Amino acid sequence: MSNAELNELKQKYVAAGAASPATAFADRAENAEIWDADGNRFIDFAGGIGVLNVGHRHPKVVAAVKAQLDKLMHTCQTVMPYEGYVKVAEKLSHLVPVRGHAKVMLANSGAEALENAVKIARAATGRSNVICFDGGYHGRTFYTMAMNGKVAPYQSDFGPMPGTVFRAPYPVPYHGVSEDEAIRGLKMTLKTDANPKDTAAIVLEPVLGEGGFYPASKSFLEKIREICDEHGMLMIIDEVQSGFGRTGKMFAIEHSGVEPDIMTMAKSMADGMPISAVVGTDKVMDASGPNSLGGTYTGSPTACAAALAVMEVFAEENILEKSRALGEKLAARFGEWQTKFDCIDNVRNMGAMAAFELVSNKTDRTPNPELAAALCKKAREEGLILLSCGMYGNTIRFLMPVTIEDSVLNEGLDIIESCLESLI
């Protein structure tokens, strides 16, 4: 079917809140390129929102899924377990830098992982409260909606949010929130809203995702660890977007050396197959009773096969080094743009998790979300899929596959430069 025909069906049958505004429908893809239903080619700088760090349809992942389909598609692992689930758990327990011996539960999505992380933290501590941060994004299920540090569009239309979720400032010095102010705000939250003796966990992203690609400093993460230890609270690190090689290490928290109690991950864990994980210290993970964790499709055989293949790809193709190299290339180009364009400021990257701000005034750092929206729209018209994000909607983020070919990368970056020249 053509794009036009598919758009007619979308308008008629897909709920408005779930319908994409895009009018081109993906038909096939390879590494960092997508072709739509009409045969038009797009360069993919979004990666399915950080899901495709090893590229669309990596051959090793495709082969692993096909082989699994010939053996077993589903039993529900709580009914009859299978090798893939326990092998993924074994691999993750050795990869994830939590305190002590790690244990694992698998789920289907990042939001589901965060929901279960909170359940586990409550069971382990006997407490109810959770503290999250401004700008954080943790999912679209009801409790994770409450955890999100941005109202629109995630909470706006859905009535009162669940209670026992409290907020603290996230340090973004560029926008006037220093690390000291963020810590002072967190301590005030513990004093005025969330009594430490009733607080199960502090949950944060080591690099904000939807909130703008702002990394937390090593010292800030160390202070969060200290505060959790002081009050007997658990430290939960959300690596759904920053994990699996995006930042030049397998997980962003590794840059700090801090060991959390629980970590969540999803997205690039299985190169497009739906899977997520909660990994934590064994005593914490074993706190809840029998059959208290899980779900019908959690850790499906096909998704586990894909995840195991992804971990092999990381080892065989040196994906972490490629992420660091890609980050250096992006940083160099961003630096050129920051000098060339008055609208570009605060260029930044941690490995290939890279972004810059679009502003109308560099002196005042005035966000320009209208230009960000116009750039993404213009880029799409020129065959490049590009995403904005951030509390102010003015950040341009880069989530192309780490495996992108240099020629395709440079072609996409040239499109951005051309679009900026035409827009300003």
UniProtKB/TrEMBL annotation:
InterPro entries attached to this UniProt entry: 4NH2But_aminotransferase_bac, Aminotrans_3, Aminotrans_3_PPA_site, Class-III_PLP-dep_AT, PyrdxlP-dep_Trfase, PyrdxlP-dep_Trfase_major, PyrdxlP-dep_Trfase_small
Signal peptide interval: none
Cofactor: pyridoxal 5'-phosphate
Keyword presence, Membrane: no
GO term, biological process aspect, one: gamma-aminobutyric acid metabolic process
Stretches of the chain forming a coiled coil according to its record: none
SUPFAM superfamilies in alphabetical order: PLP-dependent transferases
Name of this protein: 4-aminobutyrate--2-oxoglutarate transaminase
PANTHER family attached to this UniProt entry: AMINOTRANSFERASE CLASS III
Transmembrane domains' residue ranges: none
E.C. numbers: 2.6.1.19
GO molecular function, one term: 4-aminobutyrate:2-oxoglutarate transaminase activity
Keyword entries, A-Z: Aminotransferase, Pyridoxal phosphate, Transferase
Protein family (similarity comment): Belongs to the class-III pyridoxal-phosphate-dependent aminotransferase family.
UniProt superkingdom: Bacteria
Organism: Vreelandella venusta
